[in-house]
Amino acid sequence: MNKQQKFIQQCEDYLQKHNINMSIVELFIHFQEIVFLHKEFNSYLKQTDINQSLESMKRNDRLKAKREIFSKWYFLHKRNKGLTKEVLIELSEMVFLSERTVQDDVFK
Description:
Blueprint: H1 3-17, H2 24-47, H3 50-55, H4 59-78, H5 84-95, H6 99-107
Helix pairs in contact: 4-5, 4-6, 5-6
C-alpha cells in the first residue's frame, strides 16, 4: 500500500472511529477552516496587544483567559452567520467544554 492509500485509509478509520458523517474532503475543509480561525484569532490578539498581557500570566490562568477571549471573539465573529445556540454548540465542540461553560465565558 502506498503512502496516499495509507493516508486515505487512516482518514476513513478516523471518521468511522469517531462516528463522523462526512467525506474525507469535507473533513479537510473543516480542518482548514479551523486553522484559518486560529490564525485570525492570533492576529487579533497581536493587534489588540492582548498577547502581551497574557504572557505575563501563569500558564493555567493564561490558558483560561485565552479560552474566554476566544469564546467571546468567536461568538461575535459568528453571531450574524447563525443562531446563537448553534454558535455555542460549535464553540463547545472546538474548546472541548460544556455548552454551559462556553455560555458563561461568552456572556460573562
